[in-house]
Write a structure and sequence with these properties.
Layout (H helix, E strand, L loop, with lengths): L5 E4 L1 H14 L4 E5 L1 H5 L3 H7 L5 E4 L2 H9 L5 E4 L6 H10 L2 E4 L5 H5 L10 E4 L10 H13 L8 E4 L11 H13 L6 E2 L3 H6 L7 E2 L25 E13 L4 E2 L5 E2 L4 E6 L16 E4 L2 E6 L7 E4 L11 E5 L5 H7 L4 H6 L6 E4 L4
Parallel strand pairs: 1-18, 2-3, 2-9, 3-4, 4-5, 5-6, 6-7, 7-8
Antiparallel strand pairs: 1-10, 10-13, 10-17, 11-12, 13-16, 14-15, 14-17, 15-16
Helix pairs in contact: 4-5
The structure holds pyridoxal-5'-phosphate.
C-alpha cells in the first residue's frame, strides 16, 4: 500500500522533455541541469532517465560525486566550483568540471601542476552579479588559465542570464551582447542559455544549453505553463482524503480560523502539508484534485494536513485519491496561488514523501 503522501515520477515525460529541448536547439549540445536533488525529483533517478543528455550539471561537488558513484560517465559540470584545495582535489579524483568564477580559485589550480588535465568552465559575469569574472579581470585570468598545464585547453566559457524569464526585459540582449564582446577571439566552447534562454532567446543558444526546469516539465515564464511549450509534467504529488465531515455556517476551519463557512459545507481533510513540502503560503482557493475534480483549498496549510471544500464533489469519501500538482493540475498554477515559482515547490518535497516511478508499486 502506498503511503499517505507520495510522488510519482514519469520517466517517459523526462525523456520527452529532453527531446523538446533538442527540437528547440538543433545545433547545440545539451547539459542537463539536475542540481538540488534533480529539482526535488531524485538525482540518480533523473540522471538515469536523461542518459541521452550530452552532459550533466550540478551545483556542488558532492552532487557530482554522487552521480559518479552511481556509474554516470557523462561530463559533469559543477556550477559552484570549489572554494578550497580539498574540493578541487575531489574534482580531479572524480573527473568533475568545476566552474571558475573568481581569481581566488586560481592558486589551487596552479598548484596542481603534474596532474591529469582537468576540464574547466570559466564563468563571466555579464550582469547577474552573482558568480563570475568581470570584464576587468577576464584577460589576466584567462591568460593564467591558458598557461596552467593542469587544465585541458581550450577553456570553455559560460555566463548566466539574470532576467530571461521576462521576455520584455532588455537585460538579456545586453548580457548576450556583452558575453559576445568579452569572449571575442577566445577559443573554447560557449554556454549561455537556461530554460528561459532556450525557449525565449534564440541568440543565447550557442554551443551548449543548460536546461533545468523545462526538463521537469514546467515553464520558466510566469504567465505560461509547460504544456504551452509542449512539455509534460514529470512529478505528480499524490495524497488521499483522511476524513470528510459536515460543517455549519459560522464554523471556522484550521489554525487561526482564517476560513469560515458561509453555508453548510462538506469539508475534506487531505493528508499532505508543509511537512511534505506543500507550501504553507498556498491561499484559500488553491485548486486541489479530489477524484480528478477540482476543489478549493480552504484555511491554513498545516504540517501534515490541508482542508478542502468538497461542495462540488459530493461523492468524495475517506481514502479517495487526491492530486496536489502534476498531471491534470499544473505546478505553475499552484505556484501562483502560493506566491512562489514552480522551482521552489518541486525542490521542497521532503524526505517523508516516498517517490515511485510510473507503473511501480
Ligand atoms: C540552475 C541553473 C540553470 C538551469 O536553470 P533553469 O531555469 O532551471 O533552466 C542553468 N545554469 C545555471 C548556472 C544554473 O544555476
Amino acid at each position: 500500500m502506498r503511503p499517505a503522501a507520495y510522488a510519482v515520477l514519469d520517466q517517459a515525460a523526462l525523456k520527452h522533455n529532453l527531446k523538446r529541448v533538442r527540437a528547440c536547439v538543433p545545433r547545440s549540445k545539451v547539459m542537463a541541469v539536475i542540481k538540488a536533488n534533480g529539482y526535488g525529483h531524485g538525482l540518480i533517478r533523473v540522471a538515469d532517465a536523461l542518459r541521452e543528455a550530452d552532459a550533466f550539471a550540478v551545483a556542488r561537488v558532492d552532487e557530482g560525486i554522487h552521480l559518479r558513484e552511481h556509474g554516470i560517465e557523462h561530463r559533469i559540470a559543477v556550477l559552484e566550483g570549489f572554494t578550497c584545495r580539498d574540493e578541487l582535489l575531489q574534482h580531479w579524483r572524480f573527473d568533475l568540471e568545476p566552474v571558475i568564477h573568481t581569481p581566488d580559485q586560481l592558486q589551487w589550480l596552479e598548484a596542481g601542476e603534474g596532474r591529469a588535465p582537468l576540464s574547466v568552465w570559466l564563468k563571466l559575469d555579464t550582469g547577474m552579479h552573482r558568480l563570475g569574472v568581470d570584464g576587468v579581470d577576464l584577460l589576466s585570468i584567462h591568460e593564467r588559465l591558458c598557461r596552467c598545464r593542469s587544465i585541458r585547453q581550450p577553456v570553455s566559457l559560460m555566463t548566466h542570464l539574470s532576467s530571461a524569464g521576462d521576455l520584455d526585459n532588455p537585460a538579456t540582449e545586453r548580457q548576450i551582447r556583452l558575453f559576445g564582446q568579452l569572449t571575442a577571439g577566445y577559443e573554447g566552447e560557449r554556454s549561455i542559455a537556461n530554460s528561459a534562454g532556450i525557449l525565449g532567446w534564440r541568440q543565447s543558444h550557442s554551443d551548449w544549453v543548460r536546461p533545468g526546469i523545462m526538463l521537469m516539465g514546467a515553464s520558466p515564464f510566469a504567465d505560461r505553463q509547460g504544456e504551452n511549450h509542449g512539455l509534460l509534467p514529470v512529478m505528480t504529488l499524490h495524497s488521499r482524503l483522511l476524513a470528510v465531515k459536515m460543517l455549519k455556517p459560522g464554523d471556522a476551519v484550521g489554525y487561526d480560523g482564517t476560513w469560515v463557512c458561509t453555508k453548510p459545507t462538506r469539508l475534506g481533510v487531505v493528508a499532505v502539508g508543509y511537512g511534505d513540502g506543500y507550501p504553507r503560503s498556498a491561499k484559500s482557493g488553491t485548486p486541489v484534485l479530489v477524484n480528478g475534480r477540482r476543489v478549493p483549498l480552504v484555511g491554513r496549510v498545516s504540517m501534515d494536513m490541508i482542508t478542502v471544500d468538497l461542495s462540488d464533489c459530493p461523492d468524495a469519501q475517506i481514502d479517495d485519491p487526491v492530486v496536489l500538482w502534476g498531471r491534470g493540475l499544473p505546478v505553475e498554477e499552484i505556484a501562483r496561488w502560493a506566491s512562489t515559482i514552480p522551482y521552489t515547490l518541486l525542490c521542497a518535497i521532503t524526505q517523508r514523501v516516498r517517490v515511485f516511478d510510473t507503473g511501480e508499486g
